[in-house]
Amino acid sequence: MFLAIAKGLSITFRHVLPGNSTTVQYPAVKLTPSDRFRGLHRLVPTQDREKCVACYLCPTVCPAKCITVESAENEKGEKYPEVYTIDLLRCIFCGYCVEACPVEAIEMTGAYELADYNREDFEFTKDRLLK
User: What is the pLDDT of residue 13?
Assistant: First the structure.
């Protein structure tokens, strides 16, 4: 019994010693998210416009229904999203929109600092998603 207690305390004391801390002093030290982390959305730009072809697959597969797309056509007859918004207050960051996109026009970045004071700032428009 005493041997088991001593073994448990030795594990505890090893984690208490300096240099073995799992706590990060945020915001002075920022964590680097993994490659699979799903953070803020971003529309991928091409040379003259966004890559999106307004196929409506992303709002169709979105379980939270937070994506709004309205399409238009340019003079060449190509479809593009005239309106593309994502409401981050409704988004559950599932990544289905990224998986469903046939032209890989939307991606999720590693940005995780999304706190804000105004509800309007969580409505990401096409211009904001292209930045």
Answer: 84
Tokens of 83: 């309106």
CA separation for the pair 109, 88 (Å, rounded): 14
Given CA atoms 22, 25, 26, 32 in this order, what sign does their dihedral have?
negative
Q: What is the pTM of this model?
A: 0.79
SS3 72: strand
Contact present, 40 and 109 (Cβ < 8 Å): yes
- What is the identity of the amino acid at 42? R
Helix H or strand E segment including 55:
none
Q: What CATH number is given to the structural domain containing 64?
A: 3.30.70.3270
127: buried, middle or exposed (CB in 10 Å: 19+, 13-18, 0-12)?
exposed
Q: What is the pLDDT of residues 76-122, one digit of tens each?
A: 888 999 999 999 999 999 999 999 999 999 999 999 999 999 999 99
The token pair that represents 64 in the structure block: 């939270």
Domain count for the chain: 1
Residue 13 lies in a domain: no
DSSP letter, residue 6? H
